[in-house]
Amino acid sequence: MPISDRASLTSLAFLFVAFGHSTDGSLSMDEMRALAGRLKQRAPGAELADIAELIKTAIGEYKTLVSMTDKLARAQQHTDSLRANVSREEVQQVLADLREIANADGNISAEEEQFIAGVAAVLGS
User: Fold this and answer.
1) What distance in Å separates the CA atoms of residue 122 and residue 72, rounded to the nearest whole number?
2) Structural domain boundaries of the chain?
3) Which candidate in 6, 8, 34, 102 could, as Cys together with 112 as Cys, close a disulfide (CB 3.0–4.6 Å)?
4) Four-point Cα dihedral 55, 16, 105, 33, nearest 10
């Protein structure tokens, strides 16, 4: 099911970027490709330029936050926003998206599992 409102897509992009970077300190090209592909699936009507802009904006926001504590707090805010605006089915898709991004490098780390579990708890899954 697509996520059509811009605010939810913005929150999802930030969540994906924070997830990809915060769990291991880097955002690999494989993770970036997976992240972009999953955003495109959530917004099938969006142009690739729109997806790129969502990612660019999310990375810009992420970089403005100095500490990891601040970055994770902002990810929490975006997750709370998603909880208020997405359906139960979309929650399951978001969790599947996180798993695919985590597995982009062929390995799902304990830190990635912990992040996914935290998002699932907030989203009520």
Assistant:
1) 13
2) 6-123
3) 102
4) -30
